[in-house]
Amino acid sequence: MATAIAKVHGPKGFFLQNGGYEYNLVLAAAALALAAAGPGAFSLEHLLKLAR
Hints:
The protein is mostly helical. It has helices at residues 2-9, 22-37, 44-47. It has one domain (2-47).
């Protein structure tokens, strides 16, 4: 995804209506935030009370 942002969307600028990388950047930020936060209370492990 980083290569697609840099090669395809990067030269077109930031805004999505011009073909920019705005949406891709939001998706990457959301994925990183979810990975950093972890599953927490929504995990199957927590639901089955396997977490310690």
